[in-house]
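Mods, move this if it's the wrong board.
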Amino acid sequence: MQTQTHHHTRLTHLEILGFDRVGFVEEVTRFIADYGHIISAKFEADGVRSEGSLSIILDNNERLDSLLVRLKAITGLVKVKPIV
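Not the wrong board. Structure tokens:
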């Protein structure tokens, strides 16, 4: 996993794959905002699937684990993984 640590913060890159639906990206970014700060986000959708990559700053590893569990509960989310 690519990370940079400064003052107890952690830069993490995530890859997201899900079914394209109204509100999918908004729900993903809202959940992430509860756990840290989104530095960059890029999503592409084709009417069937939605793929995205995000760079986020989290407080620590425990926050990442909690975030991944919460994201997996989103309707239509197929995969979320840290980018190595």
